[in-house]
Amino acid sequence: MKIIEPSVELIDDFDAAAIMQKLERAGRVCYKSEGNIKDGSAEKFIRGIIKRGHESVIEHASVSFKIVCDRGVTHELVRHRIASYSQESSRFCDYSAGKFGGEMTFIKPCFWREDDDNFQLWRETMALVEKNYLALRAAGAKPEEARSILPNSLKTEIFVTMNLRELRHFLKLRTAAAAHPQMREIALKILDMMLERLPAVFDDIQP
Asked: Out of 71, 137, 174, 184, which one is annotated catalytic?
């Protein structure tokens, strides 16, 4: 059994300057102000349209991530409908097979320390799940049958693509203090990436 931390990988060959220029060019069509495009004008323009609530302009750019998290998080993630998802399938992945090393991987809960009694109970439960899943497979159960005992804590991988407007919506909801701790853990990682690369689009979001 493996226990790992969640992670986020930015997939795109990210050219922030090109994205900002594209967004400015798209947005200025609305005002027929293309003549105002010049070096350094994109950031001020994009900040302005976001402040005025004209966020449809930023739908012209999207970003993709590969997220490693638990299945409970992905159940919430895929509720964001204006996005594309490709997820590891527990129906077709055989966790008893060689490519998985004959063991299961679980995501460490962020809300318990390792010396917490709750964490120890969680770890024991995950070990029992792994033991019984492997026993089901050895007894002839198909992966799509054995998966019925798998918990939310099972590690999964999901490839996500969102346009920037939907990503802003996602981050506003999922970095808030009221968000589920494990969902918030992922969202904060994404926000940090976006603040570093596209601050003009995301730096008004305050978790």
From this structure: 174
